[in-house]
Design goal:
alpha/beta; single chain; 27% strand; 6 strands; Nucleotidyltransferase, domain 5
Length: 140
């Protein structure tokens, strides 16, 4: 059964969002949602969810390189719990180690190099979601 998922790269200032599906195991970067001191713009997130009608969410799970938790790990867990509580959909956590570096490399082909600061949070969400989709246990 094909499922549509939304992927999130949670940050205290920005949240990257991507959409993907289990059939093709691919994801597309969508947009970046503002965060105010770690408080997401829930109205913006709700509009995205209404538009895409996902079956579940995948949230990036930041860990140290040795696999231990860090301060952002707990913040992402709270964000995932709030997503599940507000929208009553399953939330899957996905290890996001090195996703920002992968997103920056991927985004070089997408963004205008003349811009001063490139935010790649949406591309990081795409990377996180694709990692989850391509795990053997999720391949149909």
């Amino acid at each position: 059964m094909n499922q549509r998922l939304l992927g999130f790269d949670f940050g205290l200032q920005r949240i990257g969002v991507a959409v993907g599906q289990t059939l093709t195991q691919t994801a597309t970067a969508l947009e970046i949602v503002a965060c105010n001191s770690g408080k997401p713009d829930w109205a913006h997130i709700e509009r995205i969810i209404q538009e895409w009608q996902p079956d579940a969410f995948v949230v990036g799970y930041p860990l140290n390189m040795d696999g231990t938790a860090q301060e952002m790990t707990r913040a992402c867990e709270r964000f995932g719990n709030r997503l599940q509580g507000r929208f009553n959909l399953p939330v899957h956590l996905q290890d996001e180690r090195l996703s920002s570096q992968q997103a920056e490399a991927k985004a070089k082909f997408r963004y205008n190099p003349n811009k001063k600061k490139q935010f790649v949070d949406d591309v990081a969400a795409q990377v996180i979601l694709e990692r989850w989709l391509q795990q053997p246990s999720h391949i149909e």
